[in-house]
Design goal:
The chain is of the alpha/beta class and about 240 residues long. The chain contains 8 helices and 12 strands. Helix 6 links the parallel strand 7 and strand 8. The relative contact order is 0.18. One of its GO terms (molecular function) is ATP hydrolysis activity.
């Protein structure tokens, strides 16, 4: 019997009062693979990501990380799951370098100085290492969040619209980063509005609409480029894979 999926959502749904934010669905993500979630605002993508991270409880179903119930407060989960989300997570009185040092220390990374220098260069932040978040552009803030994930150990990387506020060059570097993560064995769950990013990095794409999975499969099967830049093809979802 093989190893369990790194992340497994079974029969998961989320209801707020009378509103169904996420209809019942299944999802499996294995180490070294990337699953992308596409959909318009309000489609349920971020709800699904919060549930996957253990930051929100599903109304039905179960969430497992490495075969065990997902619990955000579990030290093992905190040590192995990295989440890149809201720029509000930045501390206003810490410089870019100090942010990365804090993350490294919190996760027990020893002699992190050289690695932090590498990450700063990789995310094009070297010239802004001593800047406070308030002095950064929105794209630089997004790069800081990505850099914070890179300086810590991780087996699962959860990305909530990481392409937001990035210019085309930075998006290409983001795609390279995600491909490197999966090549290193990290599982990546990516929420994005950017179809070409999903096509470039994902092994599987789920398209959500009004909380329901309306397409599910390989990026080349689910996504088609049209005159509007992206057409989402509706197919019958086939559940967990």
């Amino acid at each position: 019997m093989g190893a369990p999926p790194l992340l497994e959502l079974s029969g998961v749904s989320r209801v707020y009062g009378k509103r169904t934010a996420l209809a019942t669905m299944n999802l499996r993500l294995r180490s070294g693979k990337c699953v992308a979630l596409l959909g318009h605002n309000g489609s349920g993508k971020s709800t699904l990501l919060r549930i996957a991270a253990g930051r929100d409880r599903p109304s039905t179903g179960t969430v497992k990380f490495d075969g065990k119930p997902m619990n955000e407060n579990d030290p093992a989960v905190r040590a192995r799951v990295a989440v890149v989300g809201d720029t509000a997570a930045c501390y206003p009185d810490l410089t870019v370098r100090e942010h990365l040092q804090l993350v490294a220390v919190a996760h027990g990374v020893e002699d992190a100085g050289d690695w932090i220098g590498h990450v700063l260069a990789d995310r094009m932040l070297t010239d802004h290492a001593d800047a406070l978040p308030g002095a950064l552009s929105s794209g630089q803030l997004q790069s800081l969040l990505l850099a914070s994930a890179m300086v810590r150990p991780r087996d699962l990387l959860l990305l909530d619209e990481p392409e937001q506020r990035l210019d085309p060059g930075a998006r290409r570097r983001l795609a390279d980063l995600i491909k490197k993560e999966t090549a290193d064995g990290v599982g990546v769950l990516l929420v994005t509005h950017h179809g070409e990013l999903a096509r470039a990095v994902a092994d599987r794409v789920l398209v959500l609409s009004d909380g329901k999975v309306v397409a599910d499969g390989h990026p080349d099967k689910v996504l088609a480029t049209g005159t509007d830049g992206l057409t989402w093809l509706a197919e019958s979802p086939d559940g967990a894979r």
